[in-house]
Amino acid sequence: MVLLESEPFTSTGLVTWPDFWANTAAPVYFNISRQPEPSSTTRQATEAGIMLVSKPTHTHSLLLAAYYNYYGPNYYYSLLGQGAPGAGDKDTFLHAATALNQSFYAVSETVVDLGNVTPWNSQVAINAGYVQADPIQDYNLTSQGQWRVRDLSVAKPPRVFFVHAGAPEFNPGKELLGPKLRGFDGNPTRLWTYPLDAMRRLGYDAEQRFWEETMSVACTMETVFVTWKSKSGLCDGVRAHWKAVFENPNLEVPTFTD
Protein backbone atom coordinates (compact mmCIF):
# COMPACT_ATOMS: atom_id res chain seq x y z
CA MET A 1 0.00 0.00 0.00
CA VAL A 2 1.34 3.40 -0.98
CA LEU A 3 0.90 4.92 2.48
CA LEU A 4 3.16 2.31 4.06
CA GLU A 5 5.94 2.99 1.56
CA SER A 6 5.89 6.79 1.73
CA GLU A 7 6.53 9.68 4.07
CA PRO A 8 5.46 10.42 6.72
CA PHE A 9 5.03 6.76 7.72
CA THR A 10 8.46 5.55 6.64
CA SER A 11 10.26 7.99 8.94
CA THR A 12 7.85 8.05 11.88
CA GLY A 13 6.18 4.64 12.08
CA LEU A 14 2.94 6.15 13.39
CA VAL A 15 0.43 8.28 11.49
CA THR A 16 -2.90 9.46 12.86
CA TRP A 17 -5.78 11.58 11.59
CA PRO A 18 -7.64 14.38 13.41
CA ASP A 19 -11.04 14.33 15.04
CA PHE A 20 -13.36 17.34 15.15
CA TRP A 21 -12.48 18.17 18.73
CA ALA A 22 -9.52 19.82 20.40
CA ASN A 23 -7.02 17.83 22.43
CA THR A 24 -8.41 18.09 25.96
CA ALA A 25 -6.04 15.99 28.08
CA ALA A 26 -5.96 17.10 31.71
CA PRO A 27 -2.80 18.77 33.07
CA VAL A 28 -2.57 16.07 35.73
CA TYR A 29 -2.10 13.44 33.01
CA PHE A 30 1.12 15.12 31.87
CA ASN A 31 2.29 15.22 35.46
CA ILE A 32 1.60 11.48 35.81
CA SER A 33 3.35 10.66 32.53
CA ARG A 34 6.27 13.00 33.31
CA GLN A 35 6.15 15.08 30.18
CA PRO A 36 5.66 18.81 29.57
CA GLU A 37 2.10 19.94 28.97
CA PRO A 38 1.61 21.07 25.35
CA SER A 39 -0.73 23.81 24.24
CA SER A 40 -4.27 22.57 23.62
CA THR A 41 -3.94 23.96 20.08
CA THR A 42 -0.84 21.90 19.22
CA ARG A 43 -3.00 19.33 17.43
CA GLN A 44 -6.53 18.03 17.30
CA ALA A 45 -7.84 15.03 19.15
CA THR A 46 -7.33 11.78 17.24
CA GLU A 47 -9.90 9.94 15.14
CA ALA A 48 -8.75 6.39 15.80
CA GLY A 49 -10.93 4.72 13.18
CA ILE A 50 -7.91 4.97 10.89
CA MET A 51 -4.29 4.76 11.92
CA LEU A 52 -0.96 3.57 10.54
CA VAL A 53 1.41 2.00 13.05
CA SER A 54 4.61 0.00 12.70
CA LYS A 55 4.66 -2.80 15.24
CA PRO A 56 8.45 -3.29 15.00
CA THR A 57 9.20 0.35 15.84
CA HIS A 58 6.23 1.19 18.08
CA THR A 59 5.70 -1.96 20.14
CA HIS A 60 6.22 -0.06 23.38
CA SER A 61 3.73 2.62 22.37
CA LEU A 62 1.15 -0.05 21.57
CA LEU A 63 1.73 -1.73 24.93
CA LEU A 64 1.35 1.56 26.78
CA ALA A 65 -1.78 2.38 24.75
CA ALA A 66 -3.15 -1.04 25.72
CA TYR A 67 -2.47 -0.17 29.37
CA TYR A 68 -4.26 3.17 28.95
CA ASN A 69 -7.24 1.39 27.42
CA TYR A 70 -7.37 -1.39 30.01
CA TYR A 71 -7.65 1.23 32.72
CA GLY A 72 -9.44 3.66 30.41
CA PRO A 73 -13.05 3.45 31.64
CA ASN A 74 -12.03 4.07 35.25
CA TYR A 75 -9.10 6.43 34.80
CA TYR A 76 -7.48 7.35 31.51
CA TYR A 77 -10.49 8.17 29.34
CA SER A 78 -11.44 10.86 31.85
CA LEU A 79 -7.86 12.09 32.09
CA LEU A 80 -7.38 12.26 28.32
CA GLY A 81 -10.82 13.57 27.38
CA GLN A 82 -12.28 15.35 30.41
CA GLY A 83 -15.77 14.63 29.14
CA ALA A 84 -15.14 15.74 25.55
CA PRO A 85 -17.21 14.09 22.76
CA GLY A 86 -16.11 10.65 21.61
CA ALA A 87 -14.06 9.78 24.68
CA GLY A 88 -12.41 6.39 24.39
CA ASP A 89 -9.34 4.82 22.85
CA LYS A 90 -8.83 7.55 20.26
CA ASP A 91 -6.26 9.66 22.13
CA THR A 92 -4.40 6.84 23.86
CA PHE A 93 -2.11 6.11 20.90
CA LEU A 94 -0.51 9.52 20.43
CA HIS A 95 -0.28 10.14 24.16
CA ALA A 96 1.44 6.79 24.58
CA ALA A 97 3.93 7.70 21.84
CA THR A 98 4.68 11.13 23.31
CA ALA A 99 5.07 9.67 26.80
CA LEU A 100 7.75 7.32 25.43
CA ASN A 101 9.28 9.98 23.17
CA GLN A 102 8.51 7.93 20.06
CA SER A 103 8.02 9.53 16.66
CA PHE A 104 4.64 10.14 15.06
CA TYR A 105 2.93 12.27 12.44
CA ALA A 106 -0.50 13.74 13.13
CA VAL A 107 -2.19 14.78 9.88
CA SER A 108 -2.90 18.50 10.16
CA GLU A 109 -5.59 18.94 7.50
CA THR A 110 -8.91 19.15 9.28
CA VAL A 111 -11.60 16.50 9.05
CA VAL A 112 -14.63 17.63 7.00
CA ASP A 113 -18.29 16.64 7.31
CA LEU A 114 -20.11 15.32 4.25
CA GLY A 115 -23.87 15.50 3.87
CA ASN A 116 -26.77 17.24 2.19
CA VAL A 117 -27.26 20.97 2.48
CA THR A 118 -30.41 22.09 4.29
CA PRO A 119 -33.06 24.13 2.42
CA TRP A 120 -33.22 26.69 5.21
CA ASN A 121 -29.47 27.45 5.30
CA SER A 122 -27.15 26.95 2.33
CA GLN A 123 -24.14 26.81 4.66
CA VAL A 124 -25.45 23.95 6.83
CA ALA A 125 -25.59 20.26 5.95
CA ILE A 126 -27.06 17.19 7.62
CA ASN A 127 -24.08 14.97 8.40
CA ALA A 128 -23.82 11.60 6.64
CA GLY A 129 -20.09 10.93 6.98
CA TYR A 130 -16.76 12.72 6.86
CA VAL A 131 -13.51 12.76 4.93
CA GLN A 132 -9.85 12.61 5.91
CA ALA A 133 -6.88 13.92 3.92
CA ASP A 134 -4.08 12.16 2.09
CA PRO A 135 -1.22 12.10 4.63
CA ILE A 136 1.44 12.14 1.91
CA GLN A 137 0.15 15.39 0.43
CA ASP A 138 -0.40 16.81 3.91
CA TYR A 139 3.19 15.97 4.86
CA ASN A 140 4.50 17.51 1.63
CA LEU A 141 2.90 20.78 2.71
CA THR A 142 3.81 20.81 6.40
CA SER A 143 7.40 19.73 5.75
CA GLN A 144 7.75 22.94 3.72
CA GLY A 145 6.20 25.03 6.47
CA GLN A 146 2.84 25.30 4.72
CA TRP A 147 0.20 24.76 7.42
CA ARG A 148 -3.32 25.18 6.12
CA VAL A 149 -4.68 24.96 9.67
CA ARG A 150 -3.03 28.34 10.21
CA ASP A 151 -3.64 29.89 6.79
CA LEU A 152 -5.93 28.28 4.21
CA SER A 153 -4.43 30.40 1.43
CA VAL A 154 -0.95 28.85 1.57
CA ALA A 155 -1.90 25.89 -0.66
CA LYS A 156 -4.73 23.85 -2.09
CA PRO A 157 -6.06 21.21 0.30
CA PRO A 158 -4.76 17.65 0.04
CA ARG A 159 -6.96 15.18 -1.75
CA VAL A 160 -9.34 13.00 0.23
CA PHE A 161 -7.90 9.59 1.05
CA PHE A 162 -10.48 8.12 3.45
CA VAL A 163 -14.23 8.46 3.73
CA HIS A 164 -15.70 7.60 7.12
CA ALA A 165 -19.17 6.43 6.14
CA GLY A 166 -20.71 6.20 9.57
CA ALA A 167 -23.94 8.18 9.59
CA PRO A 168 -25.42 5.98 8.25
CA GLU A 169 -23.09 3.01 7.91
CA PHE A 170 -23.33 1.26 4.55
CA ASN A 171 -25.14 -1.70 6.07
CA PRO A 172 -28.64 -2.20 4.65
CA GLY A 173 -29.46 -4.40 7.62
CA LYS A 174 -29.12 -1.41 9.92
CA GLU A 175 -30.00 2.24 9.29
CA LEU A 176 -28.74 2.64 5.70
CA LEU A 177 -32.21 2.36 4.15
CA GLY A 178 -33.55 5.00 6.53
CA PRO A 179 -34.69 8.63 6.31
CA LYS A 180 -31.38 10.10 5.14
CA LEU A 181 -31.95 8.51 1.72
CA ARG A 182 -34.76 11.00 1.19
CA GLY A 183 -34.05 14.61 0.40
CA PHE A 184 -35.88 17.51 1.97
CA ASP A 185 -38.30 17.35 -0.96
CA GLY A 186 -39.15 13.74 -0.10
CA ASN A 187 -37.42 12.24 -3.14
CA PRO A 188 -34.54 9.73 -3.14
CA THR A 189 -31.18 11.47 -2.91
CA ARG A 190 -27.47 10.96 -2.55
CA LEU A 191 -26.02 10.97 0.94
CA TRP A 192 -23.01 13.14 0.05
CA THR A 193 -23.39 16.34 -1.96
CA TYR A 194 -21.92 19.03 0.30
CA PRO A 195 -19.62 20.87 0.92
CA LEU A 196 -18.69 21.38 -2.70
CA ASP A 197 -14.96 21.83 -2.12
CA ALA A 198 -14.79 18.55 -0.20
CA MET A 199 -16.68 16.78 -2.99
CA ARG A 200 -14.10 18.03 -5.51
CA ARG A 201 -11.29 16.65 -3.34
CA LEU A 202 -12.72 13.13 -3.72
CA GLY A 203 -11.54 12.92 -7.33
CA TYR A 204 -14.26 10.44 -8.35
CA ASP A 205 -17.81 9.39 -7.47
CA ALA A 206 -17.01 7.61 -4.21
CA GLU A 207 -20.63 7.28 -3.14
CA GLN A 208 -21.53 5.47 -6.34
CA ARG A 209 -18.71 2.99 -5.66
CA PHE A 210 -20.01 2.47 -2.12
CA TRP A 211 -23.49 1.70 -3.45
CA GLU A 212 -22.14 -0.64 -6.14
CA GLU A 213 -20.41 -2.72 -3.49
CA THR A 214 -23.38 -2.55 -1.13
CA MET A 215 -25.74 -3.74 -3.85
CA SER A 216 -23.38 -6.57 -4.79
CA VAL A 217 -23.17 -7.80 -1.20
CA ALA A 218 -26.86 -7.32 -0.40
CA CYS A 219 -28.01 -9.14 -3.52
CA THR A 220 -25.59 -12.07 -3.36
CA MET A 221 -25.23 -12.59 0.40
CA GLU A 222 -28.56 -11.47 1.82
CA THR A 223 -29.13 -14.83 3.53
CA VAL A 224 -25.54 -15.34 4.68
CA PHE A 225 -25.08 -12.84 7.51
CA VAL A 226 -26.56 -13.87 10.85
CA THR A 227 -27.62 -10.29 11.64
CA TRP A 228 -29.59 -10.14 8.38
CA LYS A 229 -31.55 -13.37 8.85
CA SER A 230 -34.49 -11.57 10.44
CA LYS A 231 -34.49 -8.92 7.70
CA SER A 232 -36.24 -9.05 4.36
CA GLY A 233 -36.10 -7.03 1.17
CA LEU A 234 -32.57 -5.72 1.68
CA CYS A 235 -31.50 -6.38 -1.91
CA ASP A 236 -34.73 -4.90 -3.23
CA GLY A 237 -34.31 -1.80 -1.07
CA VAL A 238 -30.73 -1.19 -2.16
CA ARG A 239 -31.53 -1.86 -5.81
CA ALA A 240 -34.53 0.51 -5.71
CA HIS A 241 -32.38 3.31 -4.30
CA TRP A 242 -29.69 2.64 -6.91
CA LYS A 243 -32.18 2.94 -9.75
CA ALA A 244 -33.84 6.04 -8.29
CA VAL A 245 -30.54 7.88 -7.81
CA PHE A 246 -27.70 6.52 -9.91
CA GLU A 247 -29.77 5.59 -12.96
CA ASN A 248 -31.77 8.82 -12.83
CA PRO A 249 -30.51 11.18 -15.57
CA ASN A 250 -32.43 14.09 -14.06
CA LEU A 251 -30.71 13.98 -10.68
CA GLU A 252 -27.88 16.49 -10.30
CA VAL A 253 -24.46 14.88 -9.90
CA PRO A 254 -21.81 16.67 -7.81
CA THR A 255 -18.48 17.71 -9.33
CA PHE A 256 -15.68 15.44 -8.14
CA THR A 257 -12.63 17.23 -9.56
CA ASP A 258 -11.41 20.82 -9.85
Low-confidence stretches: none
Kindly name the structural category. Answer: alpha+beta
Mean pLDDT: 94
Assembly type of the chains comes to single chain
> What is the helical fraction, as a range of percent?
25-40%
Description:
The protein is α+β, with helices and mostly antiparallel strands and 258 residues long. The protein folds into 2 domains: 8-106, no CATH class; 112-247, no CATH class. The protein contains 9 helices and 6 strands. The strands form 2 sheets. Strands 2-1-3 form a 3-stranded mixed β-sheet, with helices on one face. The protein has a 3-stranded antiparallel β-sheet with strand order 4-5-6. Helix 3 packs across helix 4, helix 3 (55-70) packs across helix 5 and helix 8 (206-220) packs antiparallel against helix 9 (234-245). The two termini are 26 Å apart. The model has no long low-confidence stretch (mean pLDDT 94).
Write the layout of secondary structure elements.
Layout: H1 9-12, E1 14-22, H2 27-32, E2 44-53, H3 55-70, H4 72-81, H5 92-99, E3 105-106, E4 112-118, E5 121-133, H6 135-142, E6 160-164, H7 196-202, H8 206-220, H9 234-245
Parallel strand pairs: 1-3
Antiparallel strand pairs: 1-2, 4-5, 5-6
Helix pairs in contact: 3-4, 3-5, 8-9
GO molecular function: alpha-1,2-mannosyltransferase activity
Family: Belongs to the MNN1/MNT family.
Keywords: Glycosyltransferase, Golgi apparatus, Membrane, Signal-anchor, Transferase, Transmembrane, Transmembrane helix
